[in-house]
Amino acid sequence: MKRLFDLIVSILALIFLSPVILITAALVRFKLGAPILFTQERPGLNGKIFKMMKFRTMLNAVGSNGQLLPDEQRLTPFGAFLRSTSLDELPGLFNVIKGEMSLVGPRPLLVEYLPLYSDAESKRHNVRPGITGWAQVNGRNAVSWEQRFSYDIWYVENHSFWLDIKILFLTIKKVFVRDGITHQASEAESRFKGHK
Length: 196
Known about the structure:
Blueprint: H1 2-16, H2 18-32, E1 37-43, E2 49-55, H3 71-74, H4 77-85, H5 92-97, E3 102-104, E4 130-132, H6 145-158, H7 161-177
Parallel strand pairs: 3-4
Antiparallel strand pairs: 1-2
């Protein structure tokens, strides 16, 4: 039922939000250049790697050494706006349609974190990762890694259709009031380093 729900809602969302998606894509191209989409490998269900899609939020600016500048220097005000409104997440609906993600589930984190998880934290891969999740409606990126994993594990052990509905409605509310959002340039600024 969850998979069918994901498909129906994602397709309807893409149709309903198509003007927003097209305008956002055009603005990304105009303000940040090509490519419009940012793709990155992330672990999904059972740890299977897939390419998560998002709208780009940073410039490809490089320093005198030819290396990309730090994220905080490449993140533009427009990119910060896309992140704070979650508009950068809209391409993730295609990941949902492809079966790589769900509308609701633990957020897919970096592949490099896989060896760092405890056995309990690894449970987050027992379900499809989500565009939004229990951790996102309980603080988003303003909570500690320990608390974030605690929320993820709780979701895996208690998920249900009605809990997903609740999380989706809470997500919409959070996006509109922009609650629980910190203006970090990226996950790189507070990387998970495992347990000491």
